[in-house]
Amino acid sequence: MKMSKVVTTDFTVFDNRVVRDATLSWKARGVFMYLWSLPDDWDFYETELVTHAKDGRDALRSALKELQVHGYLRRVRARDAQGRVLKSEWQLADHPLWATATPAAPEPVKPAVAAPAPGTPILLSPHAVSPELPSLDQGDEEEGAAPSTPVLATWCALWPAPNVVARRQLTAWLEQFQPELVQFAIETAGTYNVQANGALKYVGAILTGWAAQSVTTLPEAQRAVAMPRKKTGPRQQRTATRRREIIPKWAQHPASGAPAKTPPRQLTPQERAELQRRLARLGEPVSAKT
């Protein structure tokens, strides 16, 4: 059956040897073509690549391992003196550039059997320190690998390495803003001691505010941060609450119905004499008052 091709303008050019290499599975060839179609400055992460297909992470890892074994992919890592990963770089070739010959299996040799030497065998101490084993780095991507871009490096200097959601958001910001603006927004959030769980929201609020103020360059962003914040509402003056005593109306206007004061009652002569008699019993002199 004859096959006809429909050619479009958006295409990728690579050597036919990789797609016709019978030692590669269809899965490995498809992964290679997808990686080859991406830009040269693209940062590759397994956690990000696995989201572009439905095969899963195990299928992606086996395809990458297959490309490494056959020399189409090489992953180089730079480490510091403490052994921490500083940078991870993926190198692709459309022909088996880094293919290594598989060593032939050695022929089995029958060891010579000798009689054991007489004497007491030397036993190893259980407290002896085991020798340090060599690193078995097989090239699988580490989740905590430090990124190579300044934006991600600034993020990792303040908080843990961003997950897949945070990386997608950072990529979206880099498409909308200049990289130095995104980096300065992350640094600004760090000066306010923002926690890792709120870093993405805080940086997004900073960038949204700059976009509303038409901030497009780093000097403009620095001036916006240095400028004191303006209060959105009018200043509310606090007035002290004063307690006022309310006087009833009848007290303000005595003629309005308030009861009039009556003069004191005058004592009768009999009452006055009785009062003097009682006071005399107490032995106190009393002057009579009318």
Automatic annotation (TrEMBL):
Task: Name the SUPFAM superfamilies on file.
Answer: DnaD domain-like
Q: Note one Pfam family from the annotation.
A: DnaB_2
Q: Where is this region: Disordered?
A: 128-147, 222-290
Please state every residue range assigned to the domain named DnaB/C C-terminal: 167-223
**InterPro entries attached here?**
DnaB/C_C, DnaD, DnaD-like_sf
Write down the superkingdom of origin: Bacteria
Q: Which PANTHER family match?
A: DNA REPLICATION PROTEIN, PHAGE REPLICATION PROTEIN-RELATED
UniProt record similarity statement: Belongs to the DnaB/DnaD family.
In Swiss-Prot or TrEMBL terms, this protein is called DnaD domain protein
